[in-house]
């Protein structure tokens, strides 16, 4: 289940309107609507915690793996890495959802991404930095 679907379901269970939730969270009504309708997600990790607190739900369960990375991983690796990875993931979502590529071409793109990952991982594994050993001891 997508974040927006979870949010809407939890909000309705608590009998809270979008406007009321927005006020409690300190965000615009348009933001809550964007989360529920447009498939957007909070950009700050703390918002997941606040939403969970307001709706009585575990914030970790509100997130999926990419949400967790973008919200917390971006804090660890920096905003530039966060922006780059979000762009890659969002571009891929658009490519796959857009219906422009055939299924075979989509599979080719995924295989190319996986190949790039494994090749980079292998290159890192094979890289052994030179270490000076003191032979006088």
List keywords for this structure.
single chain; 137 residues; mainly alpha; 434 Repressor (Amino-terminal Domain); 2 domains; globular
CATH class of the largest domain: Mainly Alpha
Helix content: over 70%
The rough form would be described as globular
Order of helices and strands: HHHHHHHH
- How many structural domains are formed by the residues? 2
Q: Kindly report how far apart the N and C termini lie.
A: 62 Å
Low-confidence stretches: none
- What fraction of the residues are assigned to beta strands by DSSP? under 5%
> How does the major sheet shape up?
none
The CATH architecture assignment of the largest domain turns out to be: Orthogonal Bundle
Say how many strands there are. 0
From the alpha carbons, calculate the radius of gyration and give it in angstroms: 21 Å
| Helix/strand structural class | mainly alpha
Mean of pLDDT: 83
Individual helix count? 8
Can you offer a commentary on this structure?
The protein has helices at 3-13, 18-25, 29-37, 45-55, 59-62, 65-77, 79-97, 103-126. With 137 residues, it is mainly α. The protein has two domains: 3-62, 434 Repressor (Amino-terminal Domain), CATH 1.10.260; 78-126, no CATH class. Helix 6 (65-77) runs antiparallel to helix 7 (79-97).
